[in-house]
Amino acid sequence: MQHQWLLLAACFWVIFMFMVASKFITLTFKDPDVYSAKHELLLLTTMPEAGKLPEETRVPEELKPTGRMLSGSRLAQPLVYMERLELVRNVCRDEALKNLSHTAISKFVLDRIFVCDKHKILFCQTPKVGNTQWKKVLIVLNGAFSSIEEIPENVVHDHEKNGLPRLSSFSDAEIQKRLKTYFKFFIVRDPFERLISAFKDKFVHNPRFEPWYKLEIAPGIIRKYRRNRTETRGIQFEDFVRYLGDPNHRWLDLQFGDHVIHWLPYAELCAPCEITYSIIGHHETLEEDAPHILREAGVDHLVTYPTIPPGITAYNRTKVERYFLGISKRDIRRLYARFQGDFKLFGYQKPEFLLN
């Protein structure tokens, strides 16, 4: 009888130890999963909205966000787009650059922003950066035409016919609602290369439907800024640079009116320190940026950005050097001083090869 009790006690002890061991094993295997889940949640809630991650907390390549991972979250964007937004935020906080980066949200700015209510998109126009094509995209999205190919060229910039309202056409309350809730974007390019493009388009090629650039604006710049008064050639790039770099350029800008939008700094056109944009595209990477913008706006299944000819968006240093050849360092430095905010805000390298 005593042996039976001892045997029962031993069996009970074995069963008890097995249960304890089983619980311990279960917890041991379960904890890593719980930790991983918590770690993932921590990563998603503490990762910066945008900008460069510190080296010690950088996300492994396979875990980096790509595409629309989380709807409505900036984590859905590849890091390059978050870094661009973070750079803008940092430069906007720089008191030394405040005069070059901050612009009031005036009617002038609101006139630059086109509205697609149907898909809740705002697009700020920055001329000489492929904006005509983006306007075509929005015209299709707004329903005025069923495809980009159907849009007549003379309609794209005719705001009575293209079905693209400007943000300035809405009431204050409606403006604020759209600024807070809509997907917002604009495109930039190297500031000096953009100025070359504006000069070529408006003063060299001079479209027939824009005669005032050659007949009114060019003579005004020449009268004020040409050093050799006996020279009778049309406006030269040197004249244009001297005008833009003049700290007192505004008196001429007022005479020229809205035509100056083709060479105004991006900060004055789109107020990036006052408006929280969803994405800032770069002309130099437009082949990747255009599809990404359409995906993030949720309209990539409805429209495609027109085909970009190979190499057309690449930065052309040789062209920049050729245009600035013979222009004094003083005039180039004054030009850079005016557009320094754009260089800093959007991460474009200071053109030391021109300045020194």
Give me the secondary-structure topology.
Elements: H1 2-46, H2 79-92, H3 98-101, H4 107-112, E1 113-116, E2 121-124, H5 131-142, H6 153-156, H7 172-181, E3 183-188, H8 191-205, H9 212-225, H10 237-245, H11 250-256, H12 266-270, E4 279-282, H13 286-296, H14 317-324, H15 329-345, H16 352-355
Parallel strand pairs: 2-3, 3-4
Antiparallel strand pairs: 1-2
| Structural class by SSE content | mainly alpha
**Sequence of strands across the biggest β-sheet:** 1-2-3-4
Low-confidence stretches: 20-75
Quote the beta fraction: 5-15%
Rounded to an integer in angstroms, the radius of gyration calculated over CA atoms is: 29 Å
Shape type: globular
Describe the structure.
52% of the residues lie in helices and 5% in strands. The protein is built from 16 helices and four strands. It has helices at residues 2-46, 79-92, 98-101, 107-112, 131-142, 153-156, 172-181, 191-205, 212-225, 237-245, 250-256, 266-270, 286-296, 317-324, 329-345, 352-355; strands at residues 113-116, 121-124, 183-188, 279-282. A four-stranded mixed sheet has the order 1-2-3-4, with helices on both faces. α9 packs across α10 (237-245) and α10 (237-245) packs across α15 (329-345). It starts with a helix and ends with a helix.
